[in-house]
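Deliverable D5.2: sample structural annotation.
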Amino acid sequence: MKLCALVLGCGSIGRRHIANLRMLGVSDVAAFDVDTGRLAAAERELGVRGVPSMEAGLSEGPQAVLVCTPPAVHVTSTLAGLEAGAAVLVEKPIAPCGGPELDRLLGHRYCRRVLVGYNLRFHKGLATVAELLHTGMVGRPLSIFVEFGHYLPEWRPDEDYRTGYIVRRNGGILLDASHEIDYVQWLAGEVESVSAVLAKTSDLEMEAEDTALLTLRHRGGVLSQVHLDCVQRGYTRGCKVVGTEATLVWGLRDGVRLTRDGKTWLERPVVPDANDMYVEELRHFLDVVVGRAEPLVDVGRAAAVLAVIEAAKRSAEERREVAP
């Protein structure tokens, strides 16, 4: 594919995107990282072309910019990419919190050229859940139970977990695992109120919460409960949808099962390779770049996720139900 892409940040997700862009036929991929050692490693190991600064990379006129930096600079980097004339894929969360910069991005004339990296939207198992739910296979949805848990030091064993933004006061599992907040709204609709408990429960060296328990009331009447933690050993990610006609269960590593009238009616072992959803996300982004698609998760949707997160923090602090 004859276009130029600029990847900002050469950590694990940046490196994944570089490799996948190459696999999808994007031959001109440049990269920048403030950590010169990390940039040099990406040049050496992935064959990417390093640039000395974000500004230098943007001056080359890339059509696609991928923002894989810490969340504190997501909005400023995204705005810079838009002003340079590029479409932008920015990793989640869109920002650590709301504010004037996010408002500026929401009001930007080209904000519809921004895709926010909620890659679970591109997982075939979860897409199957959405399809079955939205076509009425469970009847009227009543409640949804969502869980993510994984012991933080095991996320990236070759890195010190204490260097990640998740451990800082403005980080935390609620912000880092915001995929679940995004997809539960995809399945159940907008959130109208939040009740939450956030806590630091473990011995991990964290300033922020390592466990978040949320109860969400969705417009239309569905209730959902969301459990997020970075303390449990092993890996858990999935959901259960309880409807008037059936119960639907999805596990990231288990596939999809629909139970009705006391027996399994449908079972789909949809467990693709972990990289598949990132490849599909990039395919979609490249369609956005050339004008063939609108972003599946745009800035407005990502801001709605952030509003739920901020409501959850207020709820936990004030010990009451809060509207986003």
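Annotation notes: The mean pLDDT is 96. Residues 121-272+306-318 form a domain with the Dihydrodipicolinate Reductase; domain 2 fold (CATH 3.30.360.10).
The annotation will be released with the project's public dataset once the embargo ends.
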